[in-house]
Specification:
Rossmann fold, GMP Synthetase, Chain A, domain 3, 3 domains, nine-stranded mixed sheet
Length: 510
């Protein structure tokens, strides 16, 4: 399989770059700049390398650098933002800090003829975020783009296939960003585009079938997309040898537990045990109001319930987990196969003494997991579900969690989600849900005074959930949602919309 290395210098858009490459049907993997050597890069057979941005200044000694042999390794390089400055620096160019050249936000980009700018008009909009700039390009390079304040918005050494761009092609604000990445992958790295989800699914099933023959597997189903897709994929590989334990903590959204159970049992004939443990969880949450304590209790109880069920099943060889690529990158775990022997990573496998864990999705980003789910025939309603936190509605019921509050929240949340799904807002909405506050206020309904809960609607747009902006939903839509909730859900007499970005707020309220 063709692959691209995204060499991470600490940029906030690093994962987004890798996703954009994969969206262009080329496999990309992310590695921190200090976790891989030039020799390892040369051995791995990458078709191309992308150097990411980062918050540093190359002129400072303590800033991240790389072996300058990279420029003569014969591998095409696209260097972005900090990477662009680093490439210039390594090649002997000059970097300046001049407040007059500082840029942040959308600027006009003027490009010259270059294979990198094939099908990019002479003038377009790009996204900049830099203090330093390349004031003199290294020998062998020429300037191929400028912006209003940046004399070297892009540079190229075509003979060595080295390209540097000061702007960010991976963000949507850069009008021709996808085209520029596409040009790098296809015209410069000569990729053919062999990263296709249907092949990945087929190959992973075949590999698991072969390597896990005769083994008994156990999968902890949370009800979320990742574990659902992992379970169906493994079921296709090993059939009856997989048992799934679905711990229903009673903190799922409206009808969610039933939908997961019905689909997996009826459509896929999965060996599934649903444990209705709502009572156990609510019992342990009684009187608890502190958010971190709630999370801790739920995490511990989940493991206990799961262990109790697993004990009843007898000998099991391996645990299936729905780990996905962002978890792998963030844990710095590096590369590893889908099936691996287990070494002290903590958590469930360690406590339960599993010697083997199977992580069929560890190479995939979230949107790719959804695509894999579609390839496997999992219904759209399940595949398209938005991210949902492990502790579930417990961190969306502020303060003490009770059955009554959970019921109120479930109904209100279902209305909000239903209205958004129907309205299909023009703005992209990445996650949308309701939060029940523990604040009550006075209202009036008919001729009587009410004293009900205030409900918060939260909707955000984001690429990676590290930062997020509140979604500009239309006032008509918000008004419809507010009217329906106050009419249909007893206990709520006030609805407010959260207009805070992350940072300073987080997406969830607790
Ligand atoms: P925050 O609130 O940190 O949320 O801005 C970012 C994203 O992470 C999800 N989230 C969680 N997911 N377990 C999870 O699996 C958790 O404890 C948890 N807390 C937050 C949140 O829904 C959002 O998508």
């Amino acid at each position: 399989m063709e692959k691209i290395l995204v060499l991470d210098f600490g940029g906030q858009y690093c994962q987004l770059i890798a996703r954009r490459v994969r969206e262009a049907n080329v496999y990309a993997e992310v590695c921190a700049y200090d976790k891989i050597s030039l020799a390892e890069i040369a051995d791995a057979g990458y078709r191309g390398i992308i150097l990411t941005g980062g918050p540093h200044s190359v002129t400072k000694e303590e800033s991240p650098h790389f072996d300058k042999g990279l420029l003569d390794a014969g591998i095409p390089v696209l260097a972005i933002c900090y990477g662009h400055q680093l490439m210039a620096w390594l090649g002997g160019g000059e970097i300046c800090t001049d407040s007059a050249c500082r840029e942040y936000g959308s600027v006009t980009l003027s490009v010259q003829n270059s294979p990198l700018f094939e099908k990019v008009p002479a003038k377009s909009t790009c996204w900049m975020s830099h203090n330093d700039y390349v004031s003199s390009v290294p020998e062998g390079f020429r300037i191929i783009a400028v912006s209003e304040n940046c004399p070297c918005a892009a540079m190229a050494d075509d003979s060595r296939m080295l390209y540097g761009i000061q702007f960010h092609p991976e963000v949507t604000h850069t009008e021709y960003g996808r085209q520029i990445l596409y040009n790098f992958l296809y015209a410069i790295c000569r990729c053919s585009g062999d990263w296709l989800m249907k092949d990945f699914v087929r190959d992973t099933i075949a590999r698991c079938r072969q390597e896990l023959q005769g083994k008994k597997l156990l999968c902890a189903l949370s009800g979320g997309v990742d574990s659902t897709v992992a379970a169906v994929l493994l079921h296709k590989a090993v059939g009856e040898n997989l048992t799934c334990v679905f711990v229903d903590h009673g903190l799922l959204r409206k009808d969610e537990g039933d939908l997961v159970e019905r689909t997996l049992k009826e459509q896929f004939d999965l060996n599934l045990i649903r444990v209705n443990a709502a009572g156990r969880f609510l019992g342990r949450l009684k009187g608890v109001t502190e958010p971190e304590q709630k999370r801790k209790i739920i995490g511990e109880e989940f493991i206990r319930v799961f262990e109790d069920e697993a004990k009843k099943l007898g000998h099991i060889d391996a645990l299936v987990q729905g780990t996905i690529y962002p978890d792998v990158i963030e844990s710095g775990a590096g590369k590893a196969g889908v099936i691996k022997s287990h070494h002290n990573v903590g958590g469930l496998p360690e406590r339960m003494g599993f010697s083997m864990i199977v992580e069929p999705l560890r190479m995939l980003f979230k949107d790719e997991v959804r695509q894999a789910g579609r390839e496997l025939g999992i219904p759209e309603r399940l595949v398209r579900r938005q991210p949902f936190p492990g502790p579930g509605l417990a961190i969306r019921v502020l303060g003490e969690v009770t059955n009554e509050k959970l019921e109120i929240l479930r109904e209100a949340d279902a209305i909000f989600r239903d209205e958004i799904d129907r309205a299909q807002p023009a703005v992209p909405v990445s996650q949308y849900f309701a939060v029940l506050t523990d604040c009550r206020s006075v209202g009036v309904m008919g001729d009587s005074r009410t004293y009900g809960y205030a409900l918060v609607l939260r909707a955000v747009t984001t690429d990676d959930f590290m930062t997020a902006d509140w979604a500009r939903l239309s006032s008509d839509l918000l008004s419809d949602v507010s009217r329906r909730i106050t009419n249909e859900v007893r206990g709520i007499n006030r609805v407010v919309y959260d207009i805070t970005s992350k940072p300073p707020a987080t997406v969830e309220w607790e």
